[in-house]
Design a protein that fits this description.
Helix content is 12%, strand content 23%. Strands 1-2-3-4-5-6-7-8-9-11-10 form an eleven-stranded mixed β-sheet. The termini are far apart. It comes from Roseovarius litoreus.
Length: 225
Amino acid sequence: MQTFDLEAQGLRALNETLQAQSQQTNETAWEIVNPRGSHAIAVGLDAPIEVTVKGSTGYYCAGMNKQATVHVKGSAGPGVAENMMSGTVIVEGDASQYAGATGHGGLLVIKGNASSRCGISMKGIDIVVQGNVGHMSAFMAQKGNLVVCGDAGDALGDSIYEARLFVRGQVKSLGADCIEKEMRPEHLETLRDLLERSGVDARPEEFRRYGSARQLYTFDIDNAY
């Protein structure tokens, strides 16, 4: 395992080193020490490497991630895994607002709580939150799955498109055009797979599914002038 001291060696050198790793690299395991809440740690990675951050991070940790596995042994600031394409990002603690924003793919696991706007404008990412999520989570969510093992705040799924939301706890309120939907066998299977991959000990049958009523973004001739 390669160890990188962020305090001593600096953020620019860290990201340049990690971004330089290729598909054929032998240096597949990296440990980052002394992160001290720095912003933009391990961003723009595009190689099948494993990066462990020993502590909490600031803004945009693991943003634009492709292929890599990034494991944060602490909490993450706003925008963790923002615009993620593939790979896996795991946060042992809590995540601040807009976790997984605009993510196109991959898996984001938050073992604590996530703040407001978790999964905003998500476009194919899978997000599993073992705790609660804040208000306006999955706002304008287009594609992918958001799994909440705890409770959800106000306006869940506001202006949602075709993302699927699964919540085990209570939902304070649903946003515009978001409704509770039938949990069919294919949804239970998708949810079971996500829970297993995230290491969550829960039964899919304990969750409820929410999604788009498909009224907000569909043109209705009766509204034409």
